[in-house]
Amino acid sequence: MSDEIRKYHRNEVKGHVRSYVEGKSQSLDKTVKMIRTKCKNYNISEQELRSILIQVEREAVEPYLKQPKHSKLYQPERLVRFKEVCRRLGIDID
Questions:
Q1: What are phi and psi of 74, to 5 degrees?
Q2: Sign of CA dihedral 64, 66, 71, 77
Q3: Sorting pLDDT into bands at 50, 70 and 90, what band is 1?
């Protein structure tokens, strides 16, 4: 399998995680199932998945936790959803 194809599917996995974290996605069950299927079918390792999750945390979770608590941009529920995905995928992010 070419590096381009693997990169494409890693980006798809990232999109599924990010979409769920942002609250725009399907259910947690469907999201996790899609991610697991992609990882299996396209040989995305646990280390690669961990890296994807860390990227999503930095891009789609942390900026929304740094906002003032009274701001509409403050969205702690993103962290809750992120932790749910990580837990269901069996990946521990410090």
A1: -75, 115
A2: positive
A3: confident
